[in-house]
Amino acid sequence: MNNNVTEFILLGLTQDPVKKKIVFAFFLLPYLGTLLGNSLIIVTIKTSRALGSPMYFFLFYLSLSDTWFSTSMAPRMIVDALLKNSTISFSECMIQVFSFHFFGCLEVLILILMAIDRYVAICKPLHYMSIMSRRVCSVLVALAWVVSCVHSSVQIFLTLRLPFCGPNVIDHYLCDLQPLLKLACTDTYVTNLLLVSNSGAICTVSFVMLMFSYVIILHSLRNHSAEGRKKALSTCISHIIVVILFFGPCIFIYTRPTTTFPMDKMITVFYTFGTPLINPLIYTLRNAEVKNAMRKLWSKKLVS
User: Fold this and answer.
1) What distance in Å separates the CA atoms of residue 47 and residue 96, rounded to the nearest whole number?
2) Which residues pair with 206 in a beta bridge?
3) Where would I find the G-protein coupled receptors family 1 profile domain in this sequence (predicted)?
4) Which DSSP string corresponds to 19-59?
5) C-beta separation of 108 from 242 below 8 A
6) Is residue 194 in some structural domain?
7) Residue-by-residue pLDDT tens, the chain, 304 positions
8) How far is the C-alpha of 116 from the C-alpha of 213, rounded, in Å?
9) Which CATH number do you get for residue 49?
10) How far apart are the C-alpha atoms of 213 and 210, rounded to whole Å?
11) Domain housing 131
């Protein structure tokens, strides 16, 4: 591999000094909100005995993956907004590609596990605790970590195969395979196909699977009591909102790596900043058990 590039220049969302200050403020607050919201969910689930069911076990890991996913690129983007010129070394760029895809894939798989959990809880209620035991849930989460590692390793392998001879300017605010493909001094047709079959297929197939599973779940609710149907419906709607908000932009970006549009960076902003921030709001505002557990935790802190 002929690689003369040791660092890349990130153009970010804008090069205008005034607009860069707006970008700094605009993304610092959502990132801090993401950290606060997800940390609150993590601490609440970890300390509350009432939230010991498999659903909250998976929600704990969803909040973790949200936090790490956002942290894999948000701090650098926020700091870069204060700099005149933003550069990232080749090795740092590869680390960002790996971590971004690792935690992104982990979030996808956790959402699938949450859908499986809701399916078993609603469609197989008598066997729920035996099927979704703590050991089974732990194995499923461990498997999600392994699959995420394999996925992100493929991304790194595809990137390291590319020769970079210059230029080294990335028209984006993060390192990802698509903007890097534009800088490679070789034909990237095969790599593009591999990217679609990897990231694109994972996003699309996962989205179809999730939506199909929730259709089955919602269809089965007709046999439940009015109270049980209302509670299950509230939970499922929360999950469906998260799935649409996360997978919609991902499918738009990763199923057409050879084609770029001016709005691509803003769409990427939505699922890298927006979804990790919205998730805690959806799971707390629409979940009475989580809100009650948070109130008890806050009361204990005030008393102590």
Assistant:
1) 32
2) none
3) 37-283
4) HHHHHHHHHHHHHHHHHHHHHHHHHHHHH-GGG-SHHHHHH
5) no
6) yes
7) 556 788 899 888 888 888 888 888 888 998 999 999 899 889 888 888 878 888 889 999 999 999 999 999 889 888 888 888 888 999 999 999 999 999 999 999 998 998 899 889 888 888 898 999 999 999 999 999 999 999 999 888 888 888 888 788 888 888 888 888 888 888 888 888 887 778 888 888 889 988 888 888 888 877 777 777 777 777 778 778 888 888 888 888 888 766 666 677 888 888 888 888 888 888 776 677 787 887 887 777 666 5
8) 8
9) 1.20.1070.10
10) 5
11) 7-303
The dihedral through the CA atoms of 106, 111, 115, 121 has a sign that is positive
Strands 7-10 and 87-89: antiparallel
| Domain membership flag for residue 2 | no
- Provide the whole-model pTM: 0.88
Q: How many domains in the chain?
A: 1
Helical (H) or strand (E) element with 169: strand 169-170
- Phi, psi (5° rounding) for residue 86? -110, 120
String of DSSP letters for 202-258: HHHHHHHHHHHHHHHHHHHGGGS-HHHHHHHHHHHHHHHHHHHHHHHHHHHHHT-TT
Question: Does residue 66 fall inside a structural domain?
Answer: yes
- Tell me the two tokens of residue 167: 């230029």
Contact 243, 213 (CB under 8 A): no
Closest CA to 86 of 73, 99, 101, 97: 73
Please name the helix (run of DSSP H) or strand (run of DSSP E) that holds residue 89, with its range, or none.
strand 87-89
Q: Is residue 1 part of a domain?
A: no
Contact residues for 76 (Cβ-Cβ < 8 A; gap 6+): 88, 96, 174
Q: 10: helix, coil or strand? A: strand
- Supply the DSSP symbol for 184: -
CA distance 26 to 129: 44
